[in-house]
Each structure stands twice: as structure tokens, then as C-alpha cells.
Amino acid sequence: MNTILEGRGIVKTFGDFTALHGIDLRLEPGRTLGVVGESGSGKSTLGRIVMRLMKPDAGTVLLGGRDLFALSRSQLRRARRDFQLVPQDPRNALNPTATVGESLMFQLAAQGVARREWRTRIDDLLQTVSLSGDYAHAYPHELSGGQAQRVAIARAIAGRPRLLVCDEAVSALDKSVQAQVLNTFAELQSGLGVALFFITHDLAVVEHIADDLLVLNRGRAVEEGPTVDVLHAPSDPYTRELLAARHPIPAA
Ligand SMILES: Nc1ncnc2c1ncn2[C@@H]1O[C@H](COP(=O)(O)OP(=O)(O)OP(=O)(O)O)[C@@H](O)[C@H]1O
């Protein structure tokens, strides 16, 4: 199987401070890697690096087997269609003056989708994230947090990416809404075969959707492996603390 995302020995320093101490990671197509750790453990820094929003000081990131940091501008533009970010706060990320339909249209146009397909594609996208077609006329301020997050997901999948990087993508939502949006992610994965790189401080968020876990503590990978193994027999004391601190999410 082709690995969609691979990190080898990723190091990131800020002045004298080392935020990431040689992180290795691996994500196969259609699978979910949960990246878990407390605030300050280096999760977002790792997320920025795999999105090529920040350069590591050492190490490599391979996207579909190609060195992400060696891609030319035009190669990067093409590769960008394959990986998209789902942000933490969708209402800030959505253009407040554009309707949901306009935001999606803009994204489809940027991805080179022909104008005659926009309408059907927007309906399909909204349906995929369990929103009715009427939401195409809504403005971001008219949406609840859960609805806005679904729109952000719809926008991220408009170009049919192979990888979604989700940085605390459900953390701002109430537990019951979290469960619904997590279901949407799980359906996306089974329906579209998208790989998810799912960053969260809350182990409960990823325990049901992640195939594998990477647990970070102060910039070091303290645990990595299949979720069932990590949760049933955590080898690191820090993971045991995270497990004890998690708040179960009710079923949607
Ligand atoms: N641009 C920066 N300059 C200096 N230090 C930084 C910078 N970005 C991150 N750091 C530091 O690197 C460490 C890891 O930060 P990072 O945001 O990756 O952690 P995190 O696990 O995502 O935490 P949070 O959930 O709070 O965002 C922190 O100690 C942070 O202060």
C-alpha cells in the first residue's frame, strides 16, 4: 500500500527551545492517525509542518512518496488539491460576507471544476456533511458551531483530497455535536477513502475514529501504534494520564 504521508526524524526548534525532537509518523490512504497530547506538546507545530506551512529544521515529510519541501510552486499547487486543512474555528475561517454556496463555489472554481457542475457538486457536498441544500443560502453567522464545522469540512473535501489535516477540528463543539461531526468524519472516510491526520488534546475524540495513535509529550513521541493496543496497554505513564483525563463522548 502507498503511504500517503510519512514523516522521518522531524525536528523543529524555536530559538533555544526544541518543540519537536525527531518525530516519525506514517499514514496510509483511507486511514486515520490520531495525534494526541496536552497543550504545548507540539501537535500544531507538527500539523503546520505536514501542511508545509512551516519548515522543519531537520527531517523529511513525504506526501505520496514525494518530498513535500522539495516540490516546486506549481507542483505544490497541484499537491495542495490532495491535502486540505480543517480548522479549529470554522466561523473565523469562513468568509463572513459570502454565503455557504459562494464559499463552496469559490473552492470548486479554485480546484478547476467546470461552472456547469458547481450546482450539483454543492448539493452533493452539503449532503455528504448531512446538511440540506437550503444551507447554500446561509451566511456563516446564521450557522451553529456544528453546522459551520460541517461547512468547513464540505469546503475542505470540495477538491476530493486524499488527506485531511484536522487541527482540534471538533474541540470547540459541545460533546453531543462533537459526536455528530465525528460521525461525519467516519462516513467521509468510508465513503471517500480520505486519510485523516487528526490532531487533538482529547483522547476521547479520537479513540473511536483513529486506526493509529501518535502520542506527543513535550515534543517527543512517547507512544505510537494501533489505537486498540495503545488504549488497552499504554506503555507510557503520560498516555495513562491522558486516558484517565478523557471525557467520553456520547454516541450520536
Ligand atoms: N512560533 C513560535 N515561536 C516560539 N515558540 C513556539 C512557536 N510555535 C509554537 N511554539 C512553542 O512550541 C511548543 C509546541 O507548541 P504547539 O502549538 O505545537 O503545541 P500544541 O500541542 O499544538 O498545543 P496547543 O494545543 O496549545 O496549540 C509550545 O511550547 C509553544 O510555545
Notes on the protein architecture:
The structure is a single chain. The chain is an alpha/beta fold. 37% of the residues lie in helices and 25% in strands. It is built from ten helices and ten strands. The strands form two sheets. A six-stranded mixed β-sheet has the order 6-7-8-3-9-10, with helices on both faces. Strands 2-1-4-5 form a four-stranded antiparallel β-sheet, with helices on one face. Helix 4 packs across helix 5, helix 4 packs parallel to helix 6 and helix 6 packs parallel to helix 7. The radius of gyration is 18 Å and the shape is globular. The site of adenosine-5'-triphosphate (ATP) has 11 residues, from helix 1. Adenosine-5'-triphosphate (ATP) binds next to helix 1.
Topology:
Blueprint: E1 5-14, E2 17-27, E3 32-36, H1 43-50, E4 58-63, E5 66-67, H2 73-80, E6 83-86, H3 90-93, H4 100-110, H5 118-128, H6 145-157, E7 163-167, H7 175-192, E8 195-200, H8 203-206, E9 212-217, E10 220-226, H9 227-232, H10 237-245
Parallel strand pairs: 3-8, 3-9, 6-7, 7-8
Antiparallel strand pairs: 1-2, 1-4, 4-5, 9-10
Helix pairs in contact: 4-5, 4-6, 6-7
Bound molecules: adenosine-5'-triphosphate.
The site of adenosine-5'-triphosphate has 11 residues, from helix 1.
The major pleated sheet works out as: 6 strands, mixed
Query: What percentage of residues falls in helices of 4 or more residues?
Result: 25-40%
- Total beta-strand segments: 10
How large is the radius of gyration? 18 Å
Class computed from helices, strands and strand pairing? alpha/beta
Shape: globular
What is the spatial order of strands in the main beta sheet?
A: 6-7-8-3-9-10
End-to-end gap: 32 Å
